[in-house]
Amino acid sequence: METALIVTGVYVLTMLMWSATQVSSLRYEEISFEKLNRWMTSRENLLVIHLQSKPEPRADNEAIPSILDVSRVELPNLLRWMPPHTTLVFCCAGQFPRFDAKIEELLFRAEISPIYFLPLPIREPVPSAGMTGSKLLARLTHAM
């Protein structure tokens, strides 16, 4: 009985350590506005998220078509429904904060890495040539 308990404990501890190592392997990369502009016309499953501490309207809502306003509280619910290998770009003011372990685990399970972020404010709008933001959002909504 004691041996089975010890073996189970060692197994659980090993799995927890392995899981923590895998989650911490997520990479965070800053991208430029120009790169996002190219991705808007060429990437499949691209979703641009304006990450907020609390939901509030944005003044720059014309800069990126179909940008999704999401608060940090709402983000885990969104990530649970994210298709694997989605390219996520987070827009935020200032330095991009790392996510907590719960959000990183959801990103890892959805096979989303690296995590891209674009600093705000954006000075010029994304051109509407090619795929528009509404088409992109409709495609992602359909995939979910």
Explain what this protein looks like in three dimensions.
The protein has 144 residues and is an alpha/beta fold. The protein has a single domain (27-143), classed as Oxidized Rhodanese, domain 1 (3-Layer(aba) Sandwich). The chain has 5 helices and 5 strands. The protein has a 5-stranded parallel β-sheet. Helix 4 (101-109) links the parallel strand 4 and strand 5 (115-120). The longest helix has 22 residues, at 2-23. It starts with a helix and ends with a helix.
Walk across the major sheet and give the strand order: 1-5-4-2-3
Mean pLDDT: 74
Number of strands: 5
Please tell me the CATH architecture by its name.
3-Layer(aba) Sandwich
Q: Output the number of helix runs.
A: 5
- In total, how many domains does the architecture comprise? 1
Largest sheet: 5 strands, parallel
**Low-confidence residue ranges:** 127-137
Q: Would you state the CATH class?
A: Alpha Beta
Task: Please state the structural category.
Answer: alpha/beta
* Outline type: elongated
- What's the N-to-C terminus distance? 46 Å
Helix percentage: 40-55%
Please name the defining characteristics of this protein:
144 residues, alpha/beta, Oxidized Rhodanese, domain 1, five-stranded parallel β-sheet, 5 helices, 40% helix, elongated
Q: What layout of secondary structure does this protein have?
A:
Elements: H1 2-23, E1 28-30, H2 33-42, E2 46-52, E3 68-71, H3 75-80, E4 87-93, H4 101-109, E5 115-120, H5 133-143
Tell me briefly what this model is.
The chain has helices at residues 2-23, 33-42, 75-80, 101-109, 133-143, and strands at residues 28-30, 46-52, 68-71, 87-93, 115-120.
